[in-house]
Design brief:
Carbamate kinase; nine-stranded mixed β-sheet; about 240 residues; 8 helices
Length: about 240
């Protein structure tokens, strides 16, 4: 339960999607523990509001399947290696969250019982009901599907009310704001506009799945301290992708 002075939150159950690169900090590769800790603190601040949180983290900071296949590796093998990278990131985030006193479960689409749980939907829902953070790892368990698609799939299965996509910019722009000073940020944008204008929020299959399940996608900056909690309390700068 939230206290009397706590802000009322718009969503009770959400999925946070972040890229593997978000965990690199200023490094060009791998995990940067202080950055992992900072994101874990953001998650804890929202968890403390009583919000049920699940997460999907990419693997691009360790291995990117598409990059591997571009260098001559078989795509399926490269994608499985990328999935394993997401498990490593999920375990790092679990360690950071549990260090802050937040009970967390890593749930993998590829069974590896020694390090995490296999994905069983009803069990995962029960974890959320018990206010544990669920980190879904190994994508969908299938090659050719991105972690964006995995995030939309898991959010739909868990009955999440929104997907929060943490990026390096504070919303969706009509062009790259880092390259164009006149780039305009959308307050809201439709799924179809994202697809037609190639706005790069998520890949096409993830957007289509969100549209089919009427699942809002909220794009915000992960670099802004308190941004995640602020949006849930009705503040901050962000773009909502809706029907």
């Amino acid at each position: 339960m939230t206290g009397e002075n706590e802000p009322t939150v718009k969503y009770k159950r959400v999925l946070l999607k972040i890229s593997g690169e978000a965990l690199m900090g200023d490094q060009s590769y791998g995990l940067h523990p202080p950055t992992v800790e900072r994101i874990a603190l953001e998650v804890k601040s929202v968890h403390d509001l009583g919000v049920e949180i699940s997460m999907v983290i990419g693997g691009g900071n360790i291995f990117r399947g598409l990059q591997g296949s571009a260098q001559g590796m078989e795509r399926t093998t490269a994608d499985y290696m990328g999935m394993l990278a997401t498990v490593m990131n999920a375990l790092a985030m679990q360690a950071a969250l549990e260090g802050l006193g937040v009970f967390t479960r890593v749930i993998s689409a590829i069974p590896m019982d020694q390090v995490c749980e296999p994905y069983i939907r009803r069990r995962a829902v029960r974890h959320l009901e018990k206010k544990r953070v669920c980190i879904f790892a190994a994508g969908t368990g299938n090659p050719y599907f991105t972690t964006d698609t995995a995030a939309t799939l898991r959010a739909s299965e868990m009955g999440c009310e929104a997907i929060f996509k943490g990026t390096k910019v504070d919303g969706v722009y009509d062009k790259d704001p880092k390259k164009h000073a006149d780039a305009k940020r959308y307050e809201t944008v439709t799924y179809d506009e994202v697809l037609q204008k190639h706005l790069g929020v998520m890949d096409a299959s993830a957007i289509a799945l969100a549209r089919d399940n009427n699942l809002p996608i909220i794009v915000f900056s992960l670099d802004e301290p308190g941004g995640f909690k602020g949006i849930l309390s009705g503040q901050g700068t962000y773009t909502t992708v809706v029907g």
